[in-house]
Amino acid sequence: MGLKRYALLGLGAAGYAYFKKKENREKAKLAFDDSKVKVSQAIDQAKQSYYDYKNKDQETHQHEDEKMMSEGAQTSVQYYNEQQEQLDEIEKGSTENKTQL
User: Fold this and answer.
1) Which sequence spans correspond to the domains of the chain?
2) Which of 3, 9, 82, 92 is the most exposed place for a label (fewest CB within 10 A)?
3) Global model pTM greater than 0.85
4) Sequence-ordered list of residues with C-beta below 8 angstroms from that of 19, at least 6 positions apart, any chain
5) Is 20 helix (H, G, I), strand (E, B) or coil?
6) pLDDT tens, per residue, the chain with 101 residues
């Protein structure tokens, strides 16, 4: 037999000897239950942190998108107004030329 087998047999025998007493089984059960609660709390906390991070990230993107849209709308309105002014000046200029003739 190899060294690993002896180690496993030794652990098994130690476990059996330890859990043979009812008092030790109860201690182990309490420790296991306590560990489950702590792991569950840690998982819930991690999920909440991830949820908060995702929502914050999404809110930031929404704000940036809204800002970009408003700036884009202002730019397109400004462009339209400039084009309209140029057309008005051209029309006004052609009307003045006709009246001078």
Assistant:
1) 3-100
2) 3
3) no
4) 25, 28
5) coil
6) 588 898 988 989 998 888 889 998 899 899 999 999 999 999 999 999 888 887 776 666 666 667 666 666 666 777 778 888 888 888 877 666 555 55
